[in-house]
Design a protein that fits this description.
153 residues, mainly alpha, three-stranded mixed β-sheet, two-stranded antiparallel ribbon, 6 helices
């Protein structure tokens, strides 16, 4: 017999679904509004806000670390660090979570730009396209389009 006390369910809908309950062999299964599945946080309305908030919080923690390291490491090390930490968080599942409201992605774009400025030791006035060009990157929206295109074709 399976352990039903650790089981959970979620009901995906745009409307409020508080009246839905699930019982299996007399055991009530807990309803959750958000869960983490293979590293992607999914909520019951599929807005991806929880996932983008998770990525934002991880990147926000990294900004302080990068700021303290910027005068101690060479540029090539920052590229390695960027791809190991920042790019990995942004890239994983982008085909799913980047298809959301622009307002949810906006704070990710801003924190990403801030990290690039720190790593490249650029001022706040530095043009954003130049930052992406210096690192050889695509902006998040174009990275999303590229990944979806590669997935489809």
């Amino acid at each position: 017999m399976r352990n039903r006390t650790g089981s959970q369910f979620s009901f995906f809908s745009i409307c409020a679904t508080d009246c839905v309950s699930l019982t299996l062999d007399g055991t009530d299964i807990q309803k959750v509004y958000t869960c983490k599945y293979i590293g992607i946080r999914i909520n019951d309305q599929l807005t991806w806000r929880n996932h983008t908030d998770d990525i934002y919080n991880k990147l926000k923690q990294l900004t302080g670390i990068f700021y303290r390291l910027k005068s101690k490491l060479a540029y090539r090390w920052f590229q390695n660090i960027y791809y190991a930490f920042v790019y990995a968080y942004l890239f994983y599942g982008i085909e799913i979570y980047a298809n959301t409201y622009v307002s949810y992605l906006d704070k990710l774009v801003k924190i990403h730009d801030k990290i690039l400025r720190i790593l490249l030791n650029q001022s706040v006035c530095a043009p954003v396209p130049r930052l992406y060009e210096m690192f050889g990157l695509l902006i998040i929206e174009k990275l999303y389009s590229l990944q979806v295109s590669m997935l489809v074709f």
